[in-house]
UniProtKB/TrEMBL annotation, chain A:
Its cofactor is [4Fe-4S] cluster. Belongs to the peptidase U32 family. UbiU subfamily. It comes from Pseudovibrio denitrificans. One of its GO terms (biological process) is ubiquinone biosynthetic process. The lineage of its organism: Bacteria, Pseudomonadati, Pseudomonadota, Alphaproteobacteria, Hyphomicrobiales. This is Ubiquinone biosynthesis protein UbiU. It holds the Pfam family Peptidase_U32. Keywords: 4Fe-4S, Hydrolase, Iron, Iron-sulfur, Metal-binding, Protease, Ubiquinone biosynthesis.
TrEMBL record, chain B:
The gene is ubiV. Its cofactor is [4Fe-4S] cluster. Forms a heterodimer with UbiU. NCBIfam families: PRK15447.1 (NF011991). This is Ubiquinone biosynthesis protein UbiV. [4Fe-4S] cluster binds at residues 43, 175, 188, 192. GO terms for molecular function: 4 iron, 4 sulfur cluster binding; metal ion binding; peptidase activity. The keyword Transmembrane helix does not apply. Required for O(2)-independent ubiquinone (coenzyme Q) biosynthesis. Together with UbiU, is essential for the C6-hydroxylation reaction in the oxygen-independent ubiquinone biosynthesis pathway. Transmembrane segments: none annotated. The keyword Transport does not apply. It comes from the Bacteria.
Automatic annotation (TrEMBL), chain C:
Residues 75-135 form the SCP2 domain. This is Predicted lipid carrier protein YhbT, contains SCP2 domain. Pfam families: SCP2. It comes from Pseudovibrio denitrificans.
Amino acid sequence: MLGQRNDNNPSLELVCPAGTPAALKAAAEAGAHSIYCGLRNETNARNFPGLNFSEKELNAGVRLAHKHGSHVLVAVNTFARAGDTHIWKRAVDAVAASGADAIIAADIAVLDYAKEKHPDLRLHLSVQAAAATPESISFYQDTFGVQRVVLPRVMSVEEIVKLNKEITVETEVFVFGGLCVMTEGRCALSSYATGKSPNLTGVCSPPGDVSYDEDGSNLYARLGGFTIDGFGEGETAGYPTLCKGRFKAEGETSYLFEDPVSLNAASLLPRLQKAGVTACKIEGRQRGKAYISQVVKAFRAAVDAMDAGGNAEEEVSAMLSAMTEGGRETTGAYKKIWR
Amino acid sequence: MSKIELSLGPNFFNWSNEKLVDFYARIADEAPVERVYIGEVICGKRMPFNDKVWPEIYERLANAGKTVVFSTIALPVTVRDRKSISALSEDGELVEANDIAGVHKRSGQPFVGGPFLNIYNEQTAKVLMNLGMETFCPPVELPMKSVEAIAQALPDLTIELFAFGRLPLAVSGRCYHARAHKLHKDNCQFICDRDPDGMDVTTLDDQKFLAANGIQTLSHSVQAITMNRDELLTKGIGRLRLSPQDIDMIAVIEIYRDLVDGKIESAEAEARLQGLPLPGALANGYVTGKPGHLWQAD
Amino acid sequence: MFFKPDRGLFPPALQKALGILPVPPLGFALTKAVRRLARTRPDLFERLDTYKRSHFIIDPIDIPHVFRLIPNGEHATVEMFKRKDAPEGAARISGPLIVLLGLVDGTYDGDAVFFTRDLVIEGDTDAVLALRNTMEEADLSPAEFLGFNGRPREVVDGATNKTLDHLRRLLDAPTATS
């Protein structure tokens, strides 16, 4: 059962992303304890073209994952559009029918519907709900029976320790991948520039609104017409995610909001486990299956090492060096020289 | 015939106590608004300072016949933040909840659902109405089409539209004022008090883009919803919220008063707003589901 | 070696030689392959959604020809044009042939080669993203795409992989990224 992989030794549950059935298969084969995915429409927060699952693919994916002993968590984690809530209700019904192990939701309308229509379906509170205090978490627990909360990506381990002492639901934290510096679910920067945002349409800084313009030897990355970053010859280049761009403030140019880095909390796994965290989540439903397979294998090895009571710190740091290699290969493109 | 009310939203910026007291005294004496939101909604570190003047400001506004609403902090982090929400919410006075924690602590008493809550549809609004929500100020990015759908489904809910001011776009665990000044958040020296309208954030090619205010990010542009009285009534809007900026807010309020009383049309309201020393260009793109920075003269 | 290849490009002499040759009936073979795929894997074309009617211009910059792909299921077409006769499309994907082939079989990560500018994307980025995510799901080997099965598939794939790998090294193409 979810959250209780081993009653005697509560070990960390590894929650891995899958943007396609091929990625789901890769994650299951690589040893993911749980796999999260979404339906191919605006009901999930990674609503990119060509990504995600049809209802049929979800049903098959759940069967395949269960065969490998993996759980499936389905994200219906955008905010339903007024007047069109039937699309989100239908998604909840589809998740329930698929035999998936839990639904990940943020919108009160979605939580309310799931609780009313599918009382046996396990509810996880999405990071998009931005619930980080005992009071807000209790609201979702008391009102909708939420059993797990995915914590915002900017909490410190000390804060998580304290929080876990005050709440009785499970907690899940991000340990690897993209990093939101703004509180998730409370950010309209993307829609300000492009009209599309995580809460409205399930995308942030969407590729369709990105342009790269060359000006002499400089290259500018623009989002919705706003220059988000610029690269001189021989300078590193990246995707113009709004909050990871370079801006001017107080007469200085800097990555004001966040440097273009991605999260890697692998070395913190033992501390997170001690902090009472139930599950560790890897970001990246938009990533390819090769990446998924590599990252999941590495994290599974680390979790298994901790379970075996071996020198987890050592295992983790060994894994970390392997991950850095992987990071350079996949996200490291952002750091390579732009020609 | 219904009337459209006006409210003054909570002040987002780090103004000195003296400035706050003077500002609200003028509002009490001169501003034709029915409702005023007060309290610190952005940074818990500012609370020990401005907590001292809120009771006095409350009295002054209440004595002038205004409905005074305490706004609660948008992103509670510390024990002090959480206690402030509990104390305000458990109190009998009307409060604005800007985090779901406030809703929980309200235990069914009436409250305002603030623009920082994620209320995007009629079903969510209905659940919260059942828990006591009497007014709903939609998230700024919510298109008018959605606002109308919610208003239609829930005719007893007062819809209060964020009609004027820099758009509150995001909150974060990190303080951008401190970061820009190479300070740590824990030792920020309250540097955000230097920018009473927020700190300008421009692009590499000097396009005005955003404004930082401590942990908050706002638009550089100034939202201005200037639909005329009949349009607002048709769409089910009950109140317009004007968000404080460091300009002559009485002038802003008077323009909107004339607009919602049907004395002037949109074009005149826009012209009069343009005549003020606004901190940014006018914007209203979100109304039609377009990028929020756009200004469409429609 | 007597020439220093330019990061994955076919050497100029070879490019020239290819230009003199008549346009081979490669488009016909590829069209058949895509349509065969539409019958065996209809899910892939469902995944492309509205983008299956998009016109993708695939431009291997080191050969004299470009391809136009319209991945419209059983009505899919792949046409080959001389570069000077190349039509416009919704999106254009340009890069050395060896890099483009590497994207099909998953040797390269699309993001990685995009950010190193070994791959250039123009036009409708969403369409290209849909195509890339669909390729990711398709997990095609060269032989599978061309319709081989069983033992022949293994032989063809083995040979192709070996040849491509050899070519990549010979041409100093970017190293594999996935």
